[in-house]
Amino acid sequence: MITPLDIQKKEFGRGVRGYKEEDVDGFLDLLTLDWEKLIDENQKLKEQIKSLDKELTRYKRTEEMVLETLE
Predict the structure, then answer these.
(1) Burial class (CB in 10 A: 0-12, 13-18, 19+), 47
(2) Is 90 exceeded by the pLDDT of residue 51?
(3) Can you give the pTM of this predicted structure?
(4) Are 32 and 9 in contact (CB under 8 A)?
(5) What is the distance between the alpha carbons of residues 4 and 64, in angstroms, rounded to a whole number?
(6) How many CB atoms lie within 10 A of CB 7?
(7) Alpha-carbon dihedral sign for residues 43, 45, 47, 53
(8) What is the spatial distance between Cα 54 and Cα 60, in angstroms, rounded to a whole number?
(9) Are 26 and 33 in contact (CB under 8 A)?
(10) pLDDT above 90 (res 59)
């Protein structure tokens, strides 16, 4: 997986009719910021999934106990 640091450290070769270095650097900076946000959001969502899975398991146990009691 590419990291924000990989984006920042990426260097491009120069050609005869190459791109403006400032434009490329600016775009890479924007990519880095967005990538960092996505990584953070992804981590938060993974934590939320774990929490919701635990809660779901607890509700399933409660449901089983209620059903056993009703039987």
Answers:
(1) exposed
(2) yes
(3) 0.69
(4) no
(5) 46
(6) 18
(7) negative
(8) 10
(9) no
(10) yes
